[in-house]
Amino acid sequence: MVESMKKSISGQVSVNYRVNAGVIPKDVWIQDRTIGGGRIIGEVCHFIDTCSYLIGSDVVSVYASTVTKNDQSIPDEDNVNIVLNYANGSTATIAYYAYGDITMPKEYIEVFGNGVSMSMTDFRELFIYIGGKTQKIKSANQDKGFVGEFKAFKEAVKSGKEAISFESIYNTTKTTFKILESIRTGNVEKV
């Protein structure tokens, strides 16, 4: 479905990516800064990758703000709003929440730009609105691209050509660290 979204857009776009992630207790390995790095480094990186793929550009700056829970039962960064600005003039927002109800679908993506609007729910249902018409794509299976990822990796090993550029991986990784810095400083941070 992400491929269908990518084929339907061009130029500058805005992406809204909402994640109803669920709680991971503080004593689980991903929450340990030295082992798992926390959820922004360990999980939000995937949502940045998806936004960057759809937009086709690198993140140049980021602003992030968290919800501060009084009881500190989960890290503040587990409930975060992130604004990404891209080199090509596009934007993305990632709303990542741990404290929501788990019966709500986990992932919801909206894309707007150049006369096209789209919404996708949990990689199962996609609506594309273009030219006054609506196209609906529905799947009984949730395809998050894992099979395609393994095929791309296998092809990269065989051909010697990278499946994802090092520059893209570096940009996403650096962006995750800048998100943490923005939370700490309260400022927009250049990537």
What report would you give on this structure?
This protein has helices spanning 2-7, 39-55, 146-159, 166-185, and strands at 14-20, 59-66, 79-86, 91-97, 107-113, 116-121, 125-130, 133-138, 189-190. It is an alpha+beta fold and 191 residues long. Strands 8-7-6-5-1-4-3-2-9 form a nine-stranded mixed beta sheet, covered by helices on one side. Helix 2 crosses helix 4. The longest helix has 20 residues, at 166-185. The radius of gyration is 17 Å and the shape is globular.
The sequence of SSEs as H and E is: HEHEEEEEEEHHE
Largest sheet: 9 strands, mixed
Roughly how many Å is the radius of gyration? 17 Å
Main sheet: strand order:
8-7-6-5-1-4-3-2-9
The low-confidence runs, each spanning 5 or more residues with pLDDT under 50, are: none
Distance between the termini: 29 Å
Q: Pairing-aware structural class of the strands and helices? A: alpha+beta
| Quaternary structure annotation | single chain
Q: Give the tally of β-strands.
A: 9
Determine the strand fraction and express it as a percent band.
Answer: 25-35%
Q: Can you tell me the overall shape?
A: globular
Number of helices: 4
Helix content: 25-40%
Average pLDDT, rounded to a whole number, is 92
Structure, briefly:
The chain has 191 residues and is α+β, with helices and mostly antiparallel strands.
